[in-house]
Amino acid sequence: MRVRVRYYASFRDMTGKTEEWLEAPEGVTVQGIRDHVRGLYEKIARKDQVLVAVNGSFTSLDRVIMEGDDVAFFPPVSGG
Amino acid sequence: MIRIQVEDFDVGALLEAARSPSSGCVVSFVGTVRDTSRGRRISHMSVEVYEDMTRSQLEAIRAEALEKYGVDQITVIHRYGDLDVGDNIVYIGVAAGHREEGFAACRYVIEELKKRVPIWKKEYTPEGEVWVEGDRHE
């Protein structure tokens, strides 16, 4: 299964990408895809806080990712 | 009303528009670009948003505040793009029957925004660029 992931703010700088497609097994969870991304990028692996949103919402780590889901990775927010 | 925009906003006009005969007060919060941050001089700032999620998160927070505090009207505007020292960043305006719920709702919106709306600031200092990260825990 191919999953499109997007990176924001410092994570875009760390990956050098705004988005990419990752190959992931069927049934992969949010935790699984996050571990996969941490494995690809050492700078993200070193971060304490790696937030993930699926289809524009925060979600539990055991949620199963479906084909076509929109997965976004970003650091803790700092608006306001 | 929720707006996510590059353009500046007119606080006076927003406050005027928030007035209504049925509300007893208008409470507002305006966030602006400070010239220092954690001891460093700031020359300017850029603000990045994940726009779709920012809109849905702000809609949710606005609905929560209207429900929780029973206020009449809430407007939230957040800017993105390049901003100079002193520029407006965010506006929150609450029209309410009384000050207690007006202040409480305004405070709720800004505190929740800072925790869960995907917006990030990058500050430009003499030592280089620094992404500001909040302290949300998973």
Question: What is the element layout, followed by pairings?
Answer:
The complex is a heterodimer of chains A (about 80) and B (about 140).
Chain A: E1 2-7, H1 10-15, E2 19-23, H2 30-40, H3 42-45, E3 51-54, E4 57-58, E5 70-74
Parallel strand pairs in A: 1-5
Antiparallel strand pairs in A: 1-2, 3-4, 3-5
Chain B: E1 2-5, H1 11-18, E2 25-32, E3 36-37, E4 40-41, E5 44-49, H2 51-69, E6 73-79, E7 81-84, E8 88-96, H3 99-116, E9 119-125, E10 128-131
Parallel strand pairs in B: 1-6
Antiparallel strand pairs in B: 2-8, 3-4, 5-7, 5-9, 6-8, 9-10
Helix pairs in contact in B: 2-3
What features would you describe in this structure?
The complex is a heterodimer of chains A (80) and B (138). Chain A is α+β, with helices and mostly antiparallel strands and 80 residues long. Helix content of chain A is 26%, strand content 28%. Chain A has one domain (2-74): Beta-grasp domain (Ubiquitin-like (UB roll), Roll), CATH 3.10.20. Chain A has 3 helices and 5 strands; from the N terminus they run E-H-E-H-H-E-E-E. In chain A, strand 3 and strand 4 (57-58) form a beta hairpin. Chain A is globular. The model of chain A has no long low-confidence stretch (mean pLDDT 96). The longest helix of chain B is centred in the middle third of the chain and has 19 residues, at 51-69. Chain B starts with a strand and ends in a 7-residue tail after the last strand. Chain B has 3 helices and 10 strands. Chain B has helices at 11-18, 51-69, 99-116, and strands at 2-5, 25-32, 36-37, 40-41, 44-49, 73-79, 81-84, 88-96, 119-125, 128-131. Chain B has a single domain (2-32, 51-117), classed as Molybdopterin biosynthesis MoaE subunit (Aldehyde Oxidoreductase, domain 3, Alpha-Beta Complex), CATH 3.90.1170.40. In chain B, strand 9 (119-125) and strand 10 (128-131) form a beta hairpin. Classes of the chains: A alpha+beta (80), B alpha+beta (138). Chain A binds chain B through residues 8-10, 13, 49, 51, 53, 56-58, 61, 72, 74-80, and chain B through 31, 47-50, 52-54, 56, 78, 89-90, 110, 113-122, 131-138.
